[in-house]
Amino acid sequence: MLPEGADMPSLDEVRQRLDRLVGLAEGAHAGHARVRAGLAGVRDFLALAPGARDTLEELSTALFGQVLDEVELNLTHAVREILGQDRVVATRREVRNNRLQIRFEIHNQGHGDRVEDILSGQGGSVCNILSVGLRLIALSQLAPEGHRPFLVLDEQDCWIRPALVPKLMKLIAEIADRLGLQLLVISHHPIDLFADTARRILELRPDRQHGATLHRVK
Protein backbone atom coordinates (compact mmCIF):
# COMPACT_ATOMS: atom_id res chain seq x y z
CA MET A 1 0.00 0.00 0.00
CA LEU A 2 1.45 3.34 -1.06
CA PRO A 3 1.38 6.47 1.10
CA GLU A 4 -1.21 9.07 0.15
CA GLY A 5 -0.01 11.22 -2.71
CA ALA A 6 2.83 8.83 -3.65
CA ASP A 7 3.29 7.87 -7.26
CA MET A 8 3.07 4.29 -8.34
CA PRO A 9 6.65 3.01 -8.96
CA SER A 10 7.44 1.86 -12.39
CA LEU A 11 8.15 -1.72 -13.26
CA ASP A 12 11.86 -0.94 -13.70
CA GLU A 13 12.05 0.59 -10.21
CA VAL A 14 10.41 -2.46 -8.72
CA ARG A 15 12.87 -4.72 -10.51
CA GLN A 16 15.82 -2.63 -9.22
CA ARG A 17 14.54 -2.87 -5.67
CA LEU A 18 14.07 -6.60 -6.07
CA ASP A 19 17.61 -6.98 -7.38
CA ARG A 20 18.97 -5.07 -4.33
CA LEU A 21 16.96 -7.23 -1.95
CA VAL A 22 18.15 -10.39 -3.70
CA GLY A 23 21.77 -9.17 -3.41
CA LEU A 24 21.33 -8.43 0.29
CA ALA A 25 19.75 -11.83 0.83
CA GLU A 26 22.57 -13.61 -1.00
CA GLY A 27 25.20 -11.68 1.00
CA ALA A 28 23.48 -12.51 4.29
CA HIS A 29 23.23 -16.16 3.28
CA ALA A 30 26.94 -16.28 2.38
CA GLY A 31 27.84 -14.60 5.69
CA HIS A 32 25.70 -17.08 7.57
CA ALA A 33 27.45 -19.95 5.79
CA ARG A 34 30.86 -18.55 6.76
CA VAL A 35 29.82 -18.20 10.39
CA ARG A 36 28.51 -21.77 10.43
CA ALA A 37 31.74 -23.05 8.88
CA GLY A 38 33.80 -21.16 11.47
CA LEU A 39 31.61 -22.46 14.27
CA ALA A 40 32.04 -26.01 13.00
CA GLY A 41 35.82 -25.54 12.98
CA VAL A 42 35.78 -24.26 16.56
CA ARG A 43 33.65 -27.20 17.65
CA ASP A 44 36.05 -29.62 15.94
CA PHE A 45 39.01 -27.95 17.70
CA LEU A 46 37.28 -28.12 21.08
CA ALA A 47 36.54 -31.77 20.48
CA LEU A 48 40.24 -32.43 19.81
CA ALA A 49 41.54 -30.24 22.64
CA PRO A 50 41.29 -32.81 25.50
CA GLY A 51 43.10 -35.45 23.48
CA ALA A 52 45.75 -32.97 22.33
CA ARG A 53 46.29 -31.80 25.91
CA ASP A 54 46.69 -35.37 27.13
CA THR A 55 49.13 -36.11 24.32
CA LEU A 56 51.21 -33.02 25.12
CA GLU A 57 51.25 -33.96 28.80
CA GLU A 58 52.43 -37.47 27.97
CA LEU A 59 55.09 -36.10 25.65
CA SER A 60 56.38 -33.53 28.14
CA THR A 61 56.37 -36.14 30.92
CA ALA A 62 58.30 -38.58 28.73
CA LEU A 63 60.86 -35.99 27.60
CA PHE A 64 61.36 -34.55 31.08
CA GLY A 65 61.36 -38.08 32.45
CA GLN A 66 64.57 -38.79 30.55
CA VAL A 67 66.22 -35.90 32.38
CA LEU A 68 64.82 -37.10 35.72
CA ASP A 69 66.15 -40.60 35.10
CA GLU A 70 69.65 -39.16 34.82
CA VAL A 71 69.08 -36.97 37.89
CA GLU A 72 68.04 -40.04 39.89
CA LEU A 73 71.17 -41.92 38.85
CA ASN A 74 73.49 -39.04 39.72
CA LEU A 75 71.88 -38.36 43.10
CA THR A 76 71.82 -42.07 43.96
CA HIS A 77 75.52 -42.26 43.15
CA ALA A 78 76.19 -39.25 45.39
CA VAL A 79 74.24 -40.68 48.34
CA ARG A 80 75.92 -44.09 48.04
CA GLU A 81 79.39 -42.62 47.49
CA ILE A 82 79.21 -40.36 50.54
CA LEU A 83 77.16 -42.40 53.01
CA GLY A 84 78.39 -45.79 51.80
CA GLN A 85 74.90 -47.28 52.15
CA ASP A 86 72.49 -48.98 49.77
CA ARG A 87 70.02 -46.14 49.18
CA VAL A 88 68.26 -45.14 45.98
CA VAL A 89 66.94 -41.71 45.03
CA ALA A 90 63.60 -41.99 43.23
CA THR A 91 61.05 -39.51 41.92
CA ARG A 92 57.27 -39.60 41.74
CA ARG A 93 55.96 -37.72 38.72
CA GLU A 94 52.43 -36.55 38.02
CA VAL A 95 50.66 -33.81 36.09
CA ARG A 96 48.37 -31.50 38.05
CA ASN A 97 46.71 -28.40 36.63
CA ASN A 98 48.69 -28.83 33.40
CA ARG A 99 51.98 -28.77 35.35
CA LEU A 100 54.46 -31.55 35.94
CA GLN A 101 55.03 -32.04 39.67
CA ILE A 102 57.96 -34.01 41.07
CA ARG A 103 58.46 -35.48 44.52
CA PHE A 104 61.80 -36.95 45.57
CA GLU A 105 62.03 -40.05 47.74
CA ILE A 106 64.77 -42.13 49.32
CA HIS A 107 64.45 -45.93 49.21
CA ASN A 108 66.51 -47.87 51.73
CA GLN A 109 67.29 -51.12 49.93
CA GLY A 110 68.78 -52.59 53.06
CA HIS A 111 65.43 -52.49 54.87
CA GLY A 112 63.02 -54.02 52.39
CA ASP A 113 62.97 -50.98 50.08
CA ARG A 114 61.57 -48.80 52.86
CA VAL A 115 60.83 -45.21 51.87
CA GLU A 116 62.62 -42.70 54.10
CA ASP A 117 61.80 -39.11 54.89
CA ILE A 118 64.38 -36.99 53.04
CA LEU A 119 64.38 -34.25 55.67
CA SER A 120 65.27 -36.62 58.51
CA GLY A 121 67.05 -39.41 56.62
CA GLN A 122 70.44 -40.15 58.20
CA GLY A 123 69.91 -37.25 60.60
CA GLY A 124 69.47 -34.75 57.77
CA SER A 125 72.61 -35.69 55.83
CA VAL A 126 70.55 -37.11 52.94
CA CYS A 127 68.75 -33.79 52.63
CA ASN A 128 72.09 -31.97 52.52
CA ILE A 129 73.45 -34.23 49.79
CA LEU A 130 70.33 -33.93 47.63
CA SER A 131 70.25 -30.17 48.10
CA VAL A 132 73.82 -29.79 46.86
CA GLY A 133 73.23 -32.20 43.98
CA LEU A 134 70.07 -30.46 42.78
CA ARG A 135 71.75 -27.05 42.93
CA LEU A 136 74.67 -28.27 40.86
CA ILE A 137 72.30 -29.84 38.31
CA ALA A 138 70.13 -26.72 38.12
CA LEU A 139 73.14 -24.44 37.70
CA SER A 140 74.56 -26.63 34.94
CA GLN A 141 71.34 -26.22 32.91
CA LEU A 142 71.43 -22.40 32.84
CA ALA A 143 72.55 -20.53 29.74
CA PRO A 144 76.22 -19.59 30.31
CA GLU A 145 75.86 -16.25 28.52
CA GLY A 146 73.32 -15.04 31.09
CA HIS A 147 74.60 -16.61 34.32
CA ARG A 148 77.91 -16.86 36.09
CA PRO A 149 79.14 -20.41 36.80
CA PHE A 150 79.42 -19.68 40.53
CA LEU A 151 77.73 -21.39 43.49
CA VAL A 152 77.85 -20.61 47.21
CA LEU A 153 77.28 -23.53 49.59
CA ASP A 154 76.63 -22.13 53.06
CA GLU A 155 77.05 -24.87 55.68
CA GLN A 156 75.71 -27.56 53.38
CA ASP A 157 77.76 -30.04 55.41
CA CYS A 158 76.17 -29.10 58.74
CA TRP A 159 74.40 -32.47 59.15
CA ILE A 160 77.22 -34.51 57.65
CA ARG A 161 79.37 -36.46 60.08
CA PRO A 162 82.94 -35.08 60.09
CA ALA A 163 84.31 -38.41 58.83
CA LEU A 164 82.11 -38.12 55.72
CA VAL A 165 82.88 -34.48 54.89
CA PRO A 166 86.00 -35.27 52.80
CA LYS A 167 83.93 -37.64 50.64
CA LEU A 168 81.29 -34.97 50.13
CA MET A 169 83.84 -32.33 49.23
CA LYS A 170 85.72 -34.66 46.90
CA LEU A 171 82.55 -35.49 44.96
CA ILE A 172 81.46 -31.84 44.82
CA ALA A 173 84.90 -30.76 43.60
CA GLU A 174 84.90 -33.40 40.85
CA ILE A 175 81.44 -32.36 39.63
CA ALA A 176 82.33 -28.66 39.76
CA ASP A 177 85.48 -29.25 37.71
CA ARG A 178 83.57 -31.30 35.16
CA LEU A 179 80.87 -28.63 34.81
CA GLY A 180 83.29 -25.70 34.91
CA LEU A 181 81.77 -24.24 38.08
CA GLN A 182 83.45 -22.18 40.79
CA LEU A 183 82.39 -22.99 44.35
CA LEU A 184 82.57 -21.04 47.58
CA VAL A 185 82.04 -23.38 50.53
CA ILE A 186 81.34 -22.03 54.03
CA SER A 187 81.73 -24.53 56.85
CA HIS A 188 82.23 -24.86 60.61
CA HIS A 189 84.05 -28.18 60.27
CA PRO A 190 87.81 -28.38 60.93
CA ILE A 191 89.99 -27.03 58.16
CA ASP A 192 91.94 -30.24 57.69
CA LEU A 193 88.80 -31.93 56.29
CA PHE A 194 89.08 -29.69 53.21
CA ALA A 195 92.84 -29.77 52.73
CA ASP A 196 92.80 -32.39 49.94
CA THR A 197 90.03 -30.84 47.81
CA ALA A 198 89.96 -27.05 48.31
CA ARG A 199 92.28 -24.97 46.14
CA ARG A 200 92.21 -22.10 48.62
CA ILE A 201 91.22 -22.10 52.31
CA LEU A 202 90.47 -18.97 54.31
CA GLU A 203 89.84 -19.03 58.05
CA LEU A 204 87.77 -16.47 59.93
CA ARG A 205 89.33 -15.91 63.36
CA PRO A 206 87.94 -13.85 66.25
CA ASP A 207 90.03 -10.88 67.34
CA ARG A 208 89.23 -8.87 70.47
CA GLN A 209 90.80 -5.70 69.14
CA HIS A 210 89.87 -5.75 65.48
CA GLY A 211 86.89 -8.10 65.45
CA ALA A 212 86.94 -11.08 63.11
CA THR A 213 89.92 -11.29 60.78
CA LEU A 214 90.40 -13.39 57.68
CA HIS A 215 93.54 -15.54 57.32
CA ARG A 216 94.63 -17.58 54.34
CA VAL A 217 95.51 -21.11 55.38
CA LYS A 218 96.11 -22.64 51.94
Strand content: 15-25%
Characterize the overall form: elongated
**pLDDT averaged over residues:** 81
Q: Output the helix-strand order.
A: HEEEHEHEEE
What is the annotated CATH architecture of one domain?
A: 3-Layer(aba) Sandwich
The first-to-last residue Cα distance is 112 Å
Q: Give the helix tally.
A: 3
The major sheet is characterized as: 3 strands, antiparallel
Helicity range: 40-55%
Structural category is: alpha+beta
InterPro entries: P-loop_NTPase (IPR027417)
Protein name: ATPase involved in DNA repair-like protein
Protein traits:
alpha+beta, Rossmann fold, 3-stranded antiparallel beta sheet, 48% helix, elongated
How would you characterize this protein structure?
InterPro entries: P-loop_NTPase. This is ATPase involved in DNA repair-like protein. This protein has 218 residues and is α+β, with helices and mostly antiparallel strands. It has a domain at 144-218: P-loop containing nucleotide triphosphate hydrolases (Rossmann fold), CATH 3.40.50. It contains three helices and seven strands; from the N terminus they run αβββαβαβββ. Strands 1-2-3 form a three-stranded antiparallel beta sheet, with helices on one face. α1 crosses α2. The model has no long low-confidence stretch (mean pLDDT 81).
SSE diagram, text form:
Layout: H1 11-83, E1 87-96, E2 99-108, E3 114-116, H2 125-140, E4 150-154, H3 165-179, E5 182-186, E6 202-205, E7 213-216
Parallel strand pairs: 4-5
Antiparallel strand pairs: 1-2, 2-3, 6-7
